[in-house]
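ARCHIVE CARD
CATEGORY: sequence design from structure
SOURCE FIELD: tokenized fold
FIELD CONTENT:
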């Protein structure tokens, strides 16, 4: 009888641990589109890429955006002799994140990792035409 009791306790403990580990999963993190790479180009090339004042490189390049983007961020392209060009990078809610209704901790994980939202797929390849500053038009 003691062996059966110990085996039953091990099975219960295994099930509890398995359910606990499964509840730590988050749907948007696991199966969502978590692409954070955006290809950025400009005409002419060689513009600096800035997001929230931090430089991310020079066009043309692929920029890895931070995970904490909620509601979009403004990217600014800067090049000497040209006006700064601001481009808004928008995000979209990932519907697979609704599966977190079944496992509450998933909301916390997806929220902390920024995976509730994804970069708008139409903005994964950005190209901007920079306008030259007219030196004769001084204010």
């Amino acid at each position: 009888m003691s062996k059966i009791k110990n085996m039953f306790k091990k099975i219960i403990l295994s099930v509890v641990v398995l359910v606990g580990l499964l509840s730590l999963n988050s749907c948007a993190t696991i199966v969502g589109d978590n692409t954070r790479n955006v290809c950025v180009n400009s005409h002419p090339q060689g513009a600096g890429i800035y997001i929230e004042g931090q430089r991310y490189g020079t066009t043309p390049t692929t920029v890895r955006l931070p995970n904490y983007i909620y509601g979009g961020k403004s990217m600014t392209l800067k090049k000497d002799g040209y006006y700064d060009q601001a481009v808004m990078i928008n995000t979209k809610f990932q519907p697979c994140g609704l599966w977190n209704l079944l496992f509450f901790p998933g909301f916390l994980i997806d929220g902390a990792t920024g995976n509730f939202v994804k970069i708008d797929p139409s903005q994964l390849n950005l190209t901007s035409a920079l306008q030259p500053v007219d030196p004769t038009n001084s204010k």
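CARD ANNOTATION: Strands lie at 37-43, 48-51, 54-58, 61-64, 73-78, 85-89, 91-93, 117-119, 125-129. The CA atoms of residues 31 and 96 lie 7 Å apart.
SHELF: design records, drawer C
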